[in-house]
Task: structure prediction
Amino acid sequence: MLSQPFIHQLLKKLHPLKNFLNTKYLIIIIVLLSIFIATLFGFHTFEKPAFAGVQSVDFVSMDSGVFTGRASLRIENKNYISISGKDIAFNMYYKNHLIAKGGSTEEVKLVKKSISNLPIAFQFYIDSVVDDLNDLLLYDSIKMEAHLTGKFTLFNFQVHDKMEVWVNTKELIDGIVKNTISKTALTLKEVKLLEITPMATHLSLMFEFVNNLPVAFTVDTMNLDVFADRMCLLNVGKCKLPAHLRMPVNASEKINSEVLIDNLNLGLAGIAKVLSGSLDYFISGAAVLSVDARTFKIPLKQHIVIHPMTQSIDISKD
Result:
């Protein structure tokens, strides 16, 4: 059995180790407590990233009433530290109708105390706003409801944000109009050779104007010139076209025109082509149309190749 003096001696030797262990545990407790307090403080003071609007909209294509495009969303980070986010998606509603949705799988860095731009791909459903298109035309901006989701690094927050946001309708309408009708609205459908001499080429042209917008519009002016070069620098004729043409929804209008081309402007090379080769002409210009108070310019550029010997004509997009 251990003697009393021996036990006292052993405890005396173990006392520094006991102090060391107590100090170590105390440090661990302090660190854990600090982490807990910091986390608790951060949880209550951290502000989730918020949707701050739309920076830009670029419509790329349309298929069956659905536009695909790219946009830049403005995301605000009010915190004093920068954070990063991923798997960001959004739905946009107008009068409780889903009109657009999109997202980004790329990781984005949100700089502290600032608004960052987030590039996203989106789909816009034009059928959802057909009944409200007049609102888009009448007002500079409209109020929509945005639903934003995303994962953010700080405390691994999952954001589900819903807010009202004002969207500029100009870019929206410009994108709809330009992408809907620019490629198919005004086209050169038929060319007839009335007369060709070394001095002049007389053509009969038939254009077609189609309204594939969900609203009616008016063609205010149409100005189309004929050029002898692809860069459209050497003007050799002007098309005579009507103006103030009313186009109801789904309407298609054939527009007849004539043009007298001055081959003498082409010089000797032009005369030689008339006699033996082929003549290249480029029709270039634009129609200006209006939808209510807004106007849009619809460009046209097409290439005509006339073969004098066979009197055949080729028409193509330039």
Q: What stands out?
A: The longest helix spans residues 4-45.
